[in-house]
Amino acid sequence: MADLRSEFIGIKSPNPFWLASAPPTDKEYNVRRAFQAGWGGVVWKTLGAEGPPVVNVNGPRYGVVHGPDRRVLGLNNIELITDRPLEVNLREIKQVKRDYPDRALIISLMVPCDEDSWRDILKRIEDTGADGVELNFGCPHGMAERGMGSAVGQVPDYIEMVTRWVKQYSRMPCIVKLTPNITDVRKPAEAARRGGADAVSLINTINSITSVDLDLFAPEPTIDGKGSHGGYCGPAVKPIALNMVAEIARNPATAGLPISGIGGVTTWRDAAEFMALGAGNVQVCTAAMTYGFKVVQEMITGLHDYLDRHDMALSDLIGRAVPNVKDWQELNLNYVTKAVIDQEACIKCGRCYAACEDTSHQAIAMKSGRVFEVVEEECVACNLCVDVCPVQDCITMRELAPGETDLRTGIARGDYANWTTHPNNPAATAAE
Amino acid sequence: MSQATLSPGIVPGRLTPDELAVNFADVAPPLDRHEAHVEADRCYFCHDAPCITACPTGIDIPLFIRQIATDTPDAAGMTIFHANILGGMCARVCPTENLCEGSCVRNDAEGQPVRIGALQRYATDGLIADGAHPFRRAEPTGKRIAVVGAGPAGLSCAHRLAAKGHDVTIFDARAKPGGLNEYGIASYKTVDGFAQAEVAWLMGIGGITMETGRALGRDLTLDTLRAEYDAVFLGIGLGAVNALRTEGESFQNVRDAVDFISELRQADDRGALPVGRDVVVIGGGMTAVDAAVQAKLLGAENVTMVYRRSRDQMGASEHEQDHATSKGVRIIHGAAPIAVLGKGKVEAVQFAYTEIREGQLHLSENGFQLPADQVFKAIGQRLEAPLADLDLAKSGKIAVTGPGRTSLDGVWAGGDCAMGGDDLTVTAVAEGRDAAEDIDARLTGRPVEIPG
């Protein structure tokens, strides 16, 4: 069996599955149950400064986007940081860490953006035994209006400044949690690195309105007829998170900076994808909030199986796909494929035909008896038919052999060549 | 088992009222909203969907299912009613595994079609229960049309004609409208008086006068109808039952299955209906199944259905056959009755096994006897009275061309009484509708609209 033990910026955990800072990690009761269920670590829900805790709304905190059969595809929340007294949280953290020394326990922090506030909070958490801190520069709702959370995360200079303070006043490993509500995620990551961060974690939630109540004419979740944008998470945000993780992993200025991957991790496969794109571990929230803590057991067995099947160690997986993430202009324009429909597997629904005929390249013919065939002369290999086909592997893309003529262009398949040297590229011509 | 179940002869009250209530409850209870949404999610929204092609009324099934999925069941209902105004009854009685569901691509995908019939019921029940009729009539045309027969074909035809602004009078021989929907379908398929509720709702469009107790040939003649109305549509069904033509057929307790089914449908107290202990049903169609299953549900101890040809030639769908056997009905294929035995009263039926030689059915030497205190005949129906001037087809039904045009000018026909079709409710609805379109085009010169 593959060894799933994980070491992330010196923090050890029995597996790379951590619970993200969020409602599931708000208190001792939950965290103990999470550890009992098998989670490798938790990031304790964000602590604020000393004093009266924040308050939450007393109406709905979550909005949802459902898929078929009410499957939760996306969740948004307008919950703030912990609304429990600081002392209570600190006492509980200490007790849990004492009882679970082998698990990772990270404390998420968010205090006003001044040096004193950060120095004070770091002093307060010093003797909890926690393994590290995560700076919450990501929450896009509520706290951001008060100059914290994503209001900091959207200004790279602030990120750098606060990270510096944290490294100055604490010896704990420091993870900077990034907001996706920015234009270029590489800039805040670079700032975190300049400030001395040991790692970044991403993504925090995305500004969102999940739906509109068409009777009340108000956004969901609706509080007394009004709504506020909340933070979106869950399976729906995974593609956005994957890209942001990859951008940081392949950016020369941040390459090698450890990444804790967050954003819609629901199964072992999602976790493996994040890790292949450079994440050293993953953090999970929505899957646990949808199905309970037990989901980690599938993640553990699934990742074991995958690593065993590929005879890989966990460390072999991390970053393995990063070299294959490229700019568009580096893609091989002489790689030619054509759709192939497996007539045995085809159930004759005609979705490929409707999609191609109405919205693409008219490259699928409908013949009598509902037989659907690819017209290679028209097929640009866009893959839409593969994507809309309800039967897995019924439509596949066949790669043309070297020298084989593309019936659409009449050109024989050539060697690797990309846009930078293409005759239609004005820049390529100018360079000559 | 209660003593009454075992009593020989034909007796009422074989089962308790509670047992009967369970047995005759809705055989396919409606989907609730959650179930409907889960099922609707399974539809692939196929291009040029095979289910539409398979539906004799051409309902746009993927569209109505998508309307259910997006939580607009009434819009889904309207999609159905535009094509098939009796979509509520069809949702209950269509042999869907031979029609829409049989052609669903999910059969190939995982052997389990989308439950189109159940979804159609979900979509249509709400609008019918709502009571308010959703269609509006066009401007009056001043044309008057006689529709003979208030069954599926006649009702469908009348509704379409009324919608187009014509004034329609429906004549029906029976006391209640609905035809086979009211008199010819097993009770558990259409519970709670649905057939009458559906007719009342359909009539809500206005412009339709219903005259029940008026039979063609007895109270009306085709000639007077032709003289008094601008057009006549015949949807008179098949009123006569084929005979066995065997010895003993006239014995007591040998009866037509259609009468038994009709009595059951009209009974206020099923416990008062007598049924035999050993019941034999002769035939292989839906009528045979409906009689056999209901005899069993009334408490008959042994019910055997005997059909002269092979299983795959039975008129009853596989689903119906499975339903029958699940209720304890025994089905024997490949045997034909040669004599009803008894002394004035039936005591047994003698069967001979059949053989097919050169495409012809022959009786073999071998056979068997089934004890029987009650026999139901369900070997097909035919036109009741010869309709003097109308040409008949070889099948003995009214000859028609195109959308139900008979050999007489100004007379159309559809449903079971007309040639072609599969003698299904849904086919009758399609034929009535299409005849109405043709009548309208003839009377007004307007183009035909066949919905899709």
TrEMBL record, chain A:
PROSITE patterns tied to this protein: 4FE4S_FER_1, 4FE4S_FER_2
InterPro entries given in the database record: 4Fe4S_Fe-S-bd, 4Fe4S_Fe_S_CS, Aldolase_TIM, Dihydroorotate_DH_cat
Name recorded for this polypeptide: dihydrouracil dehydrogenase (NAD(+))
Reactions that this protein is recorded to catalyse: 5,6-dihydrouracil + NAD(+) = uracil + NADH + H(+); 5,6-dihydrothymine + NAD(+) = thymine + NADH + H(+)
Role played: Involved in pyrimidine base degradation. Catalyzes physiologically the reduction of uracil to 5,6-dihydrouracil (DHU) by using NADH as a specific cosubstrate. It also catalyzes the reverse reaction and the reduction of thymine to 5,6-dihydrothymine (DHT).
GO cellular component: cytoplasm
Superkingdom of the source species: Bacteria
Coiled coil feature spans: none
EC top class named in words: oxidoreductase
4Fe-4S ferredoxin-type domain boundaries: 337-369, 370-400
Family: Belongs to the dihydropyrimidine dehydrogenase family.
Subunit text: Heterotetramer of 2 PreA and 2 PreT subunits.
Key words of the record: Iron, Iron-sulfur, Metal-binding, Oxidoreductase
PANTHER family the record matches: DIHYDROPYRIMIDINE DEHYDROGENASE [NADP(+)] (PTHR43073)
Gene Ontology molecular function, alphabetical: dihydropyrimidine dehydrogenase (NAD+) activity; iron-sulfur cluster binding; metal ion binding
One Pfam match: DHO_dh
Enzyme Commission number, as recorded: 1.3.1.1
From TrEMBL, chain B:
EC number: 1.3.1.1
Record keywords, A-Z: Oxidoreductase
Domain FAD/NAD(P)-binding: 144-432
Keyword Oxidoreductase applies: yes
InterPro entries named among the record's database cross-references: DPD_II, FAD/NAD-bd_sf, FAD/NAD-binding_dom, Helical_ferredxn
Gene Ontology molecular function terms on file: dihydropyrimidine dehydrogenase (NAD+) activity; iron-sulfur cluster binding
Pfam families in the cross-refs: Fer4_20, Pyr_redox_2
PANTHER family to which the protein is assigned, alphabetical: DIHYDROPYRIMIDINE DEHYDROGENASE [NADP(+)]
Role according to the record: Involved in pyrimidine base degradation. Catalyzes physiologically the reduction of uracil to 5,6-dihydrouracil (DHU) by using NADH as a specific cosubstrate. It also catalyzes the reverse reaction and the reduction of thymine to 5,6-dihydrothymine (DHT).
Protein name (database record): dihydrouracil dehydrogenase (NAD(+))
Organism: Paracoccus homiensis
